[in-house]
Amino acid sequence: MDVGAGTHTQPHAPHATESARAPGAKKTQPMDALIIEGGRPLAGRVPISGAKNAALPVMAAALLAPGEHVLRNVPSLADTRTMARVLEKLGARVEFNDHVCRIDTTRVNSVEAPYDLVRTMRASIYVLGPLLARFAAARVSLPGGCAWGPRPVNLHLEGLNAMGAALDIDHGYIVGKSVKLAGAHIRHETVSVGATAQIMMAATLASGTTIIEGAAVEPDITELGRVLIACGARIDGLGTRTVSIHGVERLQPIDCTIIPDRIEAATFLAAAAITGG
């Protein structure tokens, strides 16, 4: 990404927190403060990381299709590492190497996503729909355990219920069973990126057609839809408030590249603009 004319750039400081380190990296001490000497134009070229909020549901969607999925441009962050650990707990084999994430879901043998992982990262709940769609069962901790917190997952649960899943809350876990998910007409009065992604994933293997009214239109949703279509899903209306998902019998593994992070890109553009770079 070009952030202005010129080539004067400062190298990026390495990540200082242990949670963001890649395996094998040397341990560093957390920084107490960043000291920034301003007053100079910023210019040059910088690479833009993959979008975390696009990568997380795509990682969960790998559960829908047995086989090895290759996801490129995946940011190496605590959240993506946590999602990898959740998938490993379910029996998947996950490898990270130079922002390439390989996920083999052939031998997934568990439907339980435990509290100790889900509590650290809300997006872990994305595995709920894929587990129900592929295995007709799931046991996934609520993101806050027994406490639902400020962003409840009721829209996720209502959508899956409408598709035929029998869901109960048992000691802080969402316990789900379904003989076969079926298409449904789902209306969201409140737009939810998470619920839209959850229902889209579950609906890909459901019988019949699922229609989501009030669907989210963020790039993270269109990216997930693009990946699902490449896997063999039939989806219409991506990028609009009404999305239709026509269920198919099976999906295929995919090799894909995650879109760049728009917030990171905008940050560099703004920095160059306000410094006159």
TrEMBL record:
One of its GO terms (cellular component) is cytoplasm. Keywords: Cell cycle, Cell division, Cell shape, Cell wall biogenesis/degradation, Cytoplasm, Peptidoglycan synthesis, Transferase. It is an enzyme of class 2 (transferase). GO terms for biological process: cell division; cell wall organization; peptidoglycan biosynthetic process; regulation of cell shape. It holds the Pfam family EPSP_synthase. Pathway: Cell wall biogenesis; peptidoglycan biosynthesis. The keyword S-adenosyl-L-methionine does not apply. Belongs to the EPSP synthase family. MurA subfamily. Its EC number is 2.5.1.7. This is UDP-N-acetylglucosamine 1-carboxyvinyltransferase. InterPro entries: Enolpyruvate_Tfrase_dom, Enolpyruvate_Tfrase_sf, MurA_subfamily, RNA3'P_cycl/enolpyr_Trfase_a/b. It is found in: Cytoplasm. Its main location: cytoplasm. It catalyses: phosphoenolpyruvate + UDP-N-acetyl-alpha-D-glucosamine = UDP-N-acetyl-3-O-(1-carboxyvinyl)-alpha-D-glucosamine + phosphate. Residues 37-277 form the Enolpyruvate transferase domain. Residues 1-27 are annotated as: Disordered. GO terms for molecular function: UDP-N-acetylglucosamine 1-carboxyvinyltransferase activity. It comes from the Bacteria.
